[in-house]
Write a structure and sequence with these properties.
Largest sheet: none
Order of helices and strands: HH
Shape: extended
Distance between the termini: 28 Å
Helix content: 55-70%
Number of helices: 2
Oligomer: single chain
Amino acid sequence: MKKYRKMLSDINAPYLQSLMKLIETQSKTTLANWNALLVIAAEECAAMEAALQAVAVENEPNPAKINWNC
């Protein structure tokens, strides 16, 4: 049986549905360009996460409980 990954959002959310419809209508060139942008965005996200970890308080006694609502 295939194991599914947890998602941060609902696949049936209207904004995801509209994004999937948009993706389906794009050319291979546009999708390749988007993929390049996603790679750059992932690198930036990793850099931001590393910067946040660098200033994080170890063993925080009162960690923030954040609901990202993604």
